[in-house]
Amino acid sequence: MIMRIYESSFTTYFGVTSPNQSWGFDKIRKKTRVLVEDFVIGSSSEFDFNDLVFDVEFETASKAKITIQAVGTTLPIEAAGKEAHEIMGYSTNMLINTSGFTSVNPVSFIVEGDFGGKAINIPVRVKHGDYWVNSIAEIGTPASKIAVPTDFVWSKERDCIGRTYPAFYDWVSGGEVFYNDTYENFYNLQYKINDEVYCTYKVEYGAPIPQEIPVREGYAFLGWGDTPETMPAHDVMVTGSFKQIVFEVKDVKYEITGEETVTIKSGNCKGNVDLATNVVINGQNYIVTAIAENAFKGNTQIASVSIPAGIKSIGDNAFSGCVALFNIDIGKDVVSIGSKAFANVGTQAADRTRTENPFTVNCYAESVPQTAADSFEDSPIATGSLLVNDNIVDAYKTTSPWSGFGKIQGFHEVAGINDITIDSPNSRIYDMQGDRLDNLQKGVNIIKAESGSVKKIIVK
């Protein structure tokens, strides 16, 4: 009966309510002011929405601080199970902070429950005779409570909210704004990495936390510390850290890829370059297992390169554009060579007059590496020489792009048995597996002269 009278009077006075009107509770705020109407209908002036005024401030989705600001009814009225007059220290026959005759400090208390961080879920009820009636704010029905920002000034006694705030009429009939929604609802979200500020956001309370994946050359990001899914009602600082993974040793940069492995990231090398099989970083020994993409791209100072055993892969464009590179040794463990890894290589070798075949590749791999078709694109392989293990010469001759070399031979075909003579002190010595030797050893030795020529020596 009470609700029917209320709804009829409310609707008649303010007009038909919009089916989309959510009475302000659709706003997600850290702090919300709730205005309650007690259903006592004497005249239209009774729609003052000051019968209970309280602020809600969520600490968590299930914990909130309730602050009673005003009580403008003489009926028992509760917020979150607490009778408002009693909380303020008065009996129910008092009007508190609505009539102009009382000035009482607000009173706060903490409540916990399944609120979901929404003010609409804070229960409010008023007692009519023997019955408690719940205050509602449902779409499409006249509301007995509405949500506003905490700076909203409530109406005084018998001062209709529609007269105090004329925009209320439009709001009830489906308008978007009834009050100036400039409340403080944003908080600082700061990301810090290794004690330095990375970025700062202003994030609305309840909004999803923006995710950052920082990138810093030569470092690996180890992740963020505890990060909330949505913005809480306070400033947040999230910390993370980088770990250095790229180190320079003797003009070559290495990237740590495992507990004991590194990849050659780049190098500022020139002349005859012997890449390392292992490297010591911060006192720990690492095995070199790969050459990264673009590692030596465009280096015009490299004349020859020796890729040692242990390295398994050569990345895309690793030596692309190394126009002075006329001699390449590929170690026995290489199993893959990327796109354009040796593209436009040795194109200036034609200016050299040291050998008949200035562009030479010695591949010690135990089987033909998986090689991109354009690995030697625009390189002078048609006039170049490819030396490989004797038992897989035919495989190279029938596999692209290796088959494009002008001369493909096994190491034993290069020369006969020679006396133990070394033409130049800068010549390099290798065993049949492609491992670099400091001195001649018993058995077969491969001698690569500074000029790029190769011969075989057997030491008995």
Provide structural commentary:
The chain is mainly beta and 460 residues long. Helix content is 8%, strand content 34%. The protein is built from six helices and 31 strands. Strands 14, 15, 16, 18, 19, 21, 23 and 25 form an eight-stranded mixed beta sheet that branches.
Structure keywords:
eight-stranded mixed beta sheet, disordered N terminus, 34% strand, mainly beta, 460 residues, six-stranded parallel beta sheet
- Report strand %: 25-35%
Percent of residues in helices = under 10%
Give a quick account of the main beta sheet: strands, pairing sense, barrel closure.
8 strands, mixed
Structure class: mainly beta
Mean pLDDT: 82
- Specify Rg, calculated over alpha carbons: 41 Å
Number of helices: 6
- Unreliable residue stretches: 1-9, 41-45, 415-421
Shape descriptor = rod-shaped
Amino-to-carboxy terminus distance: 117 Å
What's the oligomerization state?
A: single chain
The overall strand count is 31
